[in-house]
Amino acid sequence: MGWIVVEFPEPREVFVGGDSQGDNRTAAGEYNAFSVGDGWQTVWLGGPRDFEPPVQSVFVPATSDAIAPFRVVFTKKV
Amino acid sequence: MRAPALVLMVLLATLPACSPTLNTPLAMYNASAGYRYTTLASDGREDTLVILAFSGGGTRAAAFSFGLLEALRDTRYLSAGSPRRLLDDVDVIASVSGGSFTAAYYALFRERIFDDFPAAFLHRDIEGELIGRMLWPPNWFRLARKDFDRINLAARLYDETVFQGRTFGDLLREPRRPYIIVNATDMTLGRRFEFTQDQFDLLCSDLSALKVADAVAASSAFPGLLSPLTLRNFAGDGCGYRPPQWLQDANRPGNPPMRYLHARDLLSYQEQAARRPWIHLLDGGLADNIGLRGPYIALSSQDSGWSVLSRINRRVVKRVVVISANAKTKKRTDWDTRQAAPGLLSVLGLVSSGPMDNYSLDTVQLIRDFFEQQEQQANSAQSCRDALLATCGRATTPLVPHVDWFPLELAFDRVEDPALRDCLEALPTSFTLPEPTVALLRQAAGVLLQRSPELERLMKGLDASWQPAAARVDPELQRTVCARAP
Q: At A59, which CATH number?
């Protein structure tokens, strides 16, 4: 088991392994942590395709936890 | 007249079957069609996920799991002022062997199970009827065919007399949960094989056309007594199948071994289609005799067609309830009273059941450990947030979903009364049990559920005024059954 947060400047739906995990953050700006299986995961965002990279393959360590989750960072295209 | 009649009988029996395979090919892969969790609507509460697991153990397991369904029907509570039954909140039933009869019957016939199932299955001498069919001369010729074996005879018996010709397609006529996962064992892989469209996609086969009785027969095909059930793997013909992303992710070297090997086994139906055009299935108990491995994967990862973890991450599910009806027994032996080593039958008996029991115990513990870890993670994160808020005025740690976890294991070794416990643990594994024994098993399941502290914790959370239903084991019934138990 591992934990991730997905960083993006605005709330976006997060997909892990093709399955929706809900929004990456609340309207108030707080991040939601997601519990995921450890090992390789494919992560992308929903909504407008205004982020990069378009998809990320990440290795989630089993040592990540809810307090110190593994960070997956998407940036907004300019 | 007798000779022509006999010739006709032999010809009819030995004619090639109209359909040489039990299962049919899938015209085109469609991830949103067929019998799978996502195509079934829920009548239950979205915030409460209830998973049942029915173990193997012949009629003993079928009666015990039936008793659990009765007890859930009788577990009533108020939800927003309206009466509900916990039974109506059940989302998934995973089953093995004897427990598959109860699971499949409930999925097909719903409320009718409470009136019909005892006469349709529990009170019947299924073993005797099966032997009767095997001894019926025309069946000797059928059994000589390479596409017909003892398992097909059993499946026909179940189809005609228990499941009334129903197919998995019939389960989609009113596509409602609970979603049943009937488990068998793939002989080549030694792994769980489930009768769901998610699994059949890998075979490029359409589960909808398959008789439910075939699935239950495979799930309960105890080695030696019954032959394996054979399915055709159509993956070589293609159906446009594309593995879901989670399966592609899981199939990458470097992943934890359990995850990687599970994915490799699943993909072997596609990747080794030329080498594996036929899939041979045996009793589901060989791979997982408690039926909890599939739910464990769905609970603890995204590697499933019905990932519970994803629903928790979406903050949809607030309570997860896993109730297993484990009909395992504990045979008393006198082996250690003598110097002479136990005989071959004793050794074979231990070999066939010992590892299965240990594996079931591990699976139950795995789920309990997972629940505890998740709870600890959520509590630590919340404590950290509270401390930061108190000292800094704001918290930088992320929000963690809070879920209440309820693991309930109904097993004979949890029975408080030692005499009843010993009696239940000594029951045989067979497909025929006396009616009083069936009644005792049903009552025992009810008592175990209603007296479970976990059930009380769950129900009080749903309805603070909840009180357990009256449940007891009839002392006279116990005397009757246990006096004649070995």
A: 2.60.40
